[in-house]
Amino acid sequence: MKLLEDRAKAWLRRRGLPVPDGRIAATAQEAATAAEALGGRVAVKALVATGRRGKAGAVKLVNGPDAALSAASEILRMQVAGLRCRQVYVERAMEVREELYLSFGFGKLAPQIVASRRGGVDIESVAAQSTGDLISVEINPVRGLTPWRAAEIWDNTGIPSKFVPALAALSVNVYEAFYAADALILELNPIAITADGALSLIGAMMEVDSNALFRHPEWRELGFDEGGPGGRPLNERERAVMEADRKFIGGAIRYTELPGEIALFLAGGGAGLLQHDLVLEAGGRPANHSDLSPANVEKPAALFDAIFTNPGAKGLLVGMNYLQMLPCTLVTEALLVSMNRNKVDPTEFPIVLRVFGPREEEARAMIAGTPGVRYMPSGASLEDAVREIVAAVSSRRAP
Amino acid sequence: MLIQARVRSATTIAQDVRCYELVAADQSPLPAYDPGAHIDLHLPSGAIRQYSLLGGADAHYEIAIQQALAGKGGSVEAFNVLVPGASVRISNPRNNFALALGATKHLFIAGGIGITPIMAMVRAVSRVREPFYLIYCTRSPARTAFLDFARGLAAQGQAQLHHDEGRSEAQLDVRAVLAEQPEGTHVYCCGPEGMMAAVREAAVGWKAGAVHFEHFSNPQIATRQASGNASFKVRLLRSGGTFDVPADRTIIEVLRDNGIEVQTSCESGLCGTCRTRYVSGTPDHRDLILDDREHGDYMMICCSRSHSGLLTLDL
After folding, report:
1. Cβ(B233)–Cβ(B242) under 8 Å?
2. What is the ipTM of this complex?
3. Whole-angstrom Cα distance, residue A397 to residue A391?
4. Chain A, nearest residue to B55 by Cα
5. Which residue is closest to A135 within chain B, CA to CA?
6. Which of helix, strand or coil describes residue B106?
7. Hey, are the CB atoms on B32 and A149 less than 8 Å from each other?
8. How far apart are CA A279 and CA B7, in angstroms?
9. At A225, is the pLDDT very low, low, confident or very high (cuts 50, 70, 90)?
């Protein structure tokens, strides 16, 4: 899960690292108020979970509240790397003498530190030039990063030696922050050497391991607000699926709503996307995307709950393929549980199943007594099943 | 897992002392290490010797070897076989002599070739500008490795060189030196046994963990051996089996005789390779690297023995 800049910086600030003072603003007016409170020159930055915002023009340095207002209103209308900007981060601007780069991530076998004395917006081109300006070293995960190693690394970047002690101490603290956050990546770009020779963490991007969120309750709920697809917030059904995914053990479920009417209960990336194409080709529109890996019955049932409560959905295709090797009864059992829970009448809400594989006969027997559910015969193709559901939904809508 | 290395250069830097640059045979960068670390050098004869890494360089290792004509032959063999271009197998770095974090001052006391781990340490602390002082004792300027480096530090008031020309009355007054150190100082000592014993004695009353030693050899093995070893039994908890360890054999030797592979290196209780957890019994610890706390759970089975008749190991 990517953390937005304000969250990443709050984490670093709490660990005593030098982060400039900053505020969140959801409107241009709030940005002006924040700029006034901070005083002097400020940076107005798009609060979106992506790098390269500076290059995209989504970071503006301005003087005073009026300029902050107009910068924010411009940024709040922007999309950065496909993400709609819903908030800006207003931060005290620093007098920058030199911009450095520092990041922690994972190499082939161990955590990795990358450092350069040429930080800033062009770090990608520094990396591409491979002129040795980017020092990248693995860190012993047991011993961690010592100040001696960190100093050696900064020394190798060519930075004047008078800055090395402070950078070494800073790097050790940042590594500890990276480790404690269960982060996958923590990138500081730039670290500024300010006019008075101090260090300041101006740019901060952090992605944390979603599987470790149980250790970080403060971030656990954020995914619901900040991780929405295409920059929109998650709706209640998408949140419910995420919650169920975390709550129940084993496997994984995913659910993203789309503006169509054919609900899709899918498994597998390639076969899933192929069925989206087939639905469109047959003249239907998908009401959602979903994915499932083998789990206990609660997870698929939660996925069916979302589908049955989506007001846009008018019919359901359960399109599995042989390769999943998951017992067909898992799907039918979860389907019946959820149909019962949501009082679904398949004569009103057509359901087509194409579920072949282990325990198929049992699954067919479970469904046999449910009128309106069409279980495709063995050998039916994905196209056959898609045509069946699109036809069923459109015939119900026609009159 | 050993690393295939190649000797890039060999330079005589003092009387009987040569400095070697080692690079990975496949040109890849060698594993990173912290100051104070050493590697095992696997010589063609099968002898394994430990040498400290000098620090200062990232992609390759530097070691310095003093030829000890009266030694066990490892350094003489190293002098003969380590010529530029020669292949040699080395271990990953290990560190039993790490710099302390948060020391108010680092005091380094090096004797002779004991300067080698301390070189890396001095380089590291000067890079982060932590307060330090080096006391470097050698017989004479001609026998002093890194003489210019030490003289440079001395000129800045960060080192003193001490040449005793073999006269015991000219030896350093360690007690006086330690007495004048500020609170929070960490002392690091590497050199001949006599010097280390003097530092150990002078540091009685210092806080545990504030005085660090790196040994060339383990005098405990010979002295305790001379006073007579007892035999005992060793039981292996996980793999099963109970074996007799006679007075003239070590645990490692007995296990090896019985086809049980245990990783070892120095076999003198100095390197840390064979550290083993014990489950019951009372070990007779003879190593020089585990501290009292670690001795509560672990022992070095290359040299340590047992006070109890039966010792159960987590092997």
Report:
1. yes
2. 0.78
3. 10
4. A152
5. B58
6. strand
7. yes
8. 66
9. low
